[in-house]
Amino acid sequence: MEPEVDVKLEHVFDVRIDFHERHIFGPVSGGAKQGYVSVRGGLVEGPRLNGTVKPYSGADWGTVRTDGVVELNAHYLLEADDGALIYIRNLGYLYGAAPPATRPGYFRCTPYFRAPEGKHDWLNRTVIVGGGQRKANPDHTLFRYYAVV
């Protein structure tokens, strides 16, 4: 019997993250700039998870490389509708997604989760990928996440 190697994507939830403060400083080692964006709060909605982004529970410590690519490195907490706290570390790349775009926009990420045992522990063993879109007025990002099945 051959192992199954085909993959499919299944939409699991969306997250809206509202931001509080943005700072960019540097250059730091290698000429890149260091970013900091604090999380004000947000909303989680979808077929497999609903809740909120815990207010002021984290930030994105993105690195703005000299080639214009932003390496995302976000850490924050989700609170499911049942009160369960879920840690998320979201890594990814963003480029060309904000004006003036010099190439097609790309905003993709691979989140990792730490969820308590029980109803939400599927997050601890599922490969999830996502795409994002930055928005202004108010400053926020929309993510759509898919389980790789």
Care to describe what's here?
This protein has no helices and ten strands. The protein is an all-beta fold and 149 residues long. Strands 1, 2, 3, 4, 5, 6, 7, 8, 9 and 10 form a ten-stranded antiparallel β-sheet that branches. A hairpin with a 4-residue loop joins strand 9 and strand 10. It is globular, with a radius of gyration of 16 Å. The mean pLDDT is 93.
Spans of at least 5 consecutive residues whose pLDDT stays below 50 are none
SS class? mainly beta
Distance between the termini: 19 Å
How much of the sequence is in beta strands? Answer: over 45%
Mean pLDDT: 93
* Overall number of strands: 10
Q: Indicate the radius of gyration in whole angstroms.
A: 16 Å
Overall morphology: globular
Helix content: under 10%
Secondary structure tally, helices: 0
Largest sheet: 10 strands, antiparallel
Please provide the ordered H/E string of secondary-structure elements.
EEEEEEEEEE
What labels would you give this structure?
149 residues, mainly beta, ten-stranded antiparallel beta sheet, 57% strand, globular
